[in-house]
Amino acid sequence: MTPITEVEGRRVALSNLDKVLYPATSTTKGELLHYCASVAGPFLAQLDDRPVSFLRFPDGPGGQRFFTKNPPPSTPTWVKTAEVPRTEDKAARQVVVSDLATLMWAANLVVEFHTPQWRAAAPGLADRLVLDLDPGEPASIVECCAVARWLRDRLAADGLSAYAKTSGSKGLHLLSALEPTPSAQVSAYAKKLAREAEAALAGLVTHKMAKALRPGKVFVDFSQNAAAKTTATPYTVRAKDRPTVSAPVSWEEVEACTDPADLTFLITDIAPRLERDGDLLAPLFDPAGAGRLP
């Protein structure tokens, strides 16, 4: 029988807790769920009021993967959903992870959490900007850090504060809090920055997605600011060989990075980092820190 546990008054089924999901580190599903519970505070802050898309990998990163936006079958009635526009004349509903019970229910499905740059209360009105720095081999997150520093200073010139997190894969994400702004305007501004970075850092940056242009360069992906796009949510675990996390990092860590291992974090690393540094992305929630696009 599937074990049932009570989480904040909700009955949540947690299955196959001994199942090894990450053979490289012998990490079990139970350990994955424990991680989500241990970082629930800052994780839920990032998920709150944002419709979630799930990349599911129920048999681990080496098994089948599938992306879903619709609430999975058998979603409990107490799980909140929000209406989300899909096309101009059609809307659908997506899960909103707003409490610990929902987080544990969703984590039991073995998922990556992906969220847009806008909140369910205001679809298409972004309250943050994201720049996804994706290295093309042999470039790595080390080169991403150099590009991130340039972009940080460029954003600051426009009055925007940038905060960094690892993608949990190969790259780095930069986030800036915004006064609510139409996603199309944010996308246009992000594209402008990506082009400026390519001009300023010749040979290191490309703003074009074509894979033929990316070896040895950092692709500054501005497209995730589009209303229909999502980005890996801070603190989510990724479907990689090891249980790597999309982890907030300090600018001191970005500046000191000389090896990809310097900015690779597993689920066992995050709680100690939170205890030492707190939530490095907490400033994103300070209304006084929200910038306005020029």
What attributes does this structure have?
single chain; 294 residues; alpha+beta; six-stranded antiparallel β-sheet; 27% helix; 26% strand; Multifunctional non-homologous end joining DNA repair protein LigD; LigD_pol_dom; NHEJ_LigD
Please give a structural write-up.
With 294 residues, the protein is an alpha+beta fold. 27% of the residues lie in helices and 26% in strands. A hairpin with a 5-residue loop joins β11 and β12. α1 (29-38) runs antiparallel to α3.
Number of strands: 16
Major β-sheet profile:
6 strands, antiparallel
| Radius of gyration, in angstroms, nearest whole number | 19 Å
Overall outline: globular
What class do helices, strands and sheet pairing give? alpha+beta
Poorly predicted regions are none
Count the DSSP helices.
Answer: 7
Mean pLDDT: 95
State the separation between the terminal residues, measured CA to CA: 58 Å
Proportion of residues in β-strands: 25-35%
SSE inventory with pairings:
Layout: E1 4-7, E2 10-13, E3 20-22, E4 27-28, H1 29-38, H2 40-47, E5 51-56, E6 66-68, E7 81-87, E8 90-96, H3 100-108, E9 111-115, E10 125-135, H4 141-157, E11 163-166, E12 172-182, H5 183-200, E13 205-206, E14 218-221, E15 231-232, E16 248-249, H6 251-256, H7 267-277
Parallel strand pairs: 13-14
Antiparallel strand pairs: 1-2, 3-4, 5-6, 5-8, 5-9, 7-8, 9-15, 10-12, 10-14, 11-12, 11-16
Helix pairs in contact: 1-3
Protein name: Multifunctional non-homologous end joining DNA repair protein LigD
Pfam family, one: LigD_Prim-Pol
Domain DNA ligase D polymerase: 28-280
